[in-house]
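Design a sequence for this backbone.
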């Protein structure tokens, strides 16, 4: 029997596949708190802020990638508990789809990304734009429920 040993991510020598900084994770938590919902599925990155998952993450900052939803269901039992205990980290593509669902026009998006100096980390910029829109929707008392099962599906 061949045993494959996990090699942890080394931030000193490895290039991160997706730039999930602590700042980005904290903004994602605010997205969750302000009504961004999702349906856990294959292809999602999640942040285990409260250390529910015992297995060491292959990515920095306790970031996990849902490659096999069954492994996460073994830990949390239901997708609802996955949503409660983990924080979804939309990829750049998923964040752009969320912007479309929130009716943020491409022109408005470009203007906000460039005017707010997010060129260094445009994913942080996208998260902040989404957060701003979610807060605006809350203040209008018409919270938009974003459902990943419809638009994002499984990849």
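Sequence:
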């Amino acid at each position: 029997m061949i045993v494959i040993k996990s090699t942890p991510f080394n931030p000193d020598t490895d290039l991160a596949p997706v730039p999930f900084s602590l700042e980005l994770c904290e903004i994602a938590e605010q997205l969750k708190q302000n009504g961004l919902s999702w349906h856990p599925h294959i292809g999602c990155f999640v942040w285990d802020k409260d250390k529910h998952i015992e297995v060491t993450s292959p990515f920095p900052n306790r970031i996990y990638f849902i490659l096999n939803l069954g492994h996460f269901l073994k830990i949390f039992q239901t997708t609802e508990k996955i949503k409660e205990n983990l924080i979804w980290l939309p990829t750049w593509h998923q964040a752009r789809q969320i912007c479309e669902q929130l009716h943020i026009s491409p022109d408005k998006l470009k203007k906000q990304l460039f005017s707010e100096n997010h060129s260094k980390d445009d994913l942080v910029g996208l998260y902040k734009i989404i957060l701003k829109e979610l807060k605006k929707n809350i203040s209008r008392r018409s919270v938009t429920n974003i459902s990943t099962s419809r638009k994002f599906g499984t990849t």
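The chain is about 45% helix and 5% strand.
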